[in-house]
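Propose amino acids for all 278 sites.
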């Protein structure tokens, strides 16, 4: 969880505590039919309130006029950290559509991915396996085929003049068995073809190459105006100058260790040679 997100949650909790000033936590919990621990967690920033929680809190503390303010605070908090549980309530397709909007608004995109092939370069079969595994993890709506189609349509941007995609991947991503060997083999063939596209600069960090910073979670930088970073529980949407500059520094540092062109082809071929597709 980001420090900024936690600080915002703590600040919201402090505001809730201000509104409760005339009651004890136990009294408010009884009034709302909640456990006292829930009241405590909301006030100390250890739990994120829902809009319904905030409406109930404002009414129970005698400050119904504060409900809009509290909701606005929550919306600001959630605009930075978008939990997968909330985003995937309607499935993966709406998430893909939201990302497509950001791609369409951008002309220069930079990516880092250390765990798997980036979505923009995935084959349909590879994407199908990835979406299925995440649907299993989050127990979300199974709209895998709709999500795959949305991801494949977004790949049309790879052939649009005026866009530049600078993509970095760790060599480990080429070996990750998130799909059957035959599917991974086809995916590696796809990567080999992408190396020659005018709109794509694909760099691969070899295993064992010196790196200026430990490779970590995947992220995209959109025109130096937005960063979307992924974690297991949420996506972080960061548009403040300091955060964007930090992620750009990370990307620039990792790029210095990347192999391009024929060297990248050799790494892809090495991963292909390790597959048993007989």
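Proposal:
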């Amino acid at each position: 969880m980001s420090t900024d997100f936690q600080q915002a949650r703590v600040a919201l909790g402090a505001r809730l505590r201000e509104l409760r000033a005339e009651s004890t936590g136990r009294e408010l919990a009884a009034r709302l039919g909640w456990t006292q621990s829930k009241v405590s967690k909301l006030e100390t920033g250890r739990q994120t309130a829902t809009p319904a929680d905030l409406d109930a809190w404002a009414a129970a503390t005698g400050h119904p006029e504060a409900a809009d303010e509290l909701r606005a605070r929550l919306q600001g908090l959630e605009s930075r950290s978008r939990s997968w549980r909330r985003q995937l309530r309607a499935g993966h397709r709406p998430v893909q559509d939201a990302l497509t909007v950001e791609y369409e608004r951008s002309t220069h995109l930079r990516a880092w991915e250390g765990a798997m092939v980036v979505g923009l370069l995935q084959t349909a079969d590879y994407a199908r396996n990835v979406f299925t595994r995440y649907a299993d993890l989050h127990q979300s709506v199974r709209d895998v085929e709709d999500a795959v189609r949305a991801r494949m349509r977004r790949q049309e941007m790879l052939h649009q003049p005026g866009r530049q995609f600078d993509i970095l991947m760790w060599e480990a991503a080429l070996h990750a068995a998130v799909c059957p060997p035959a599917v991974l083999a086809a995916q590696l063939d796809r990567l080999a073809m992408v190396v020659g596209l005018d709109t794509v600069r694909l760099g691969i960090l070899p295993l064992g190459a010196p790196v200026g910073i430990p490779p970590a979670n995947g992220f995209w930088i959109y025109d130096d105006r937005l960063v979307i970073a992924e974690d297991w529980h949420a996506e972080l949407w960061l548009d403040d100058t300091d955060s964007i500059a930090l992620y750009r520094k990370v990307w620039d540092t990792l790029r210095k260790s990347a192999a391009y062109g024929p060297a990248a082809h050799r790494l892809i071929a090495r991963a292909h040679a390790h597959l048993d597709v007989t």
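Residues 166 and 201 are 5 Å apart (CA to CA). DSSP finds 13 helices and seven strands in the chain.
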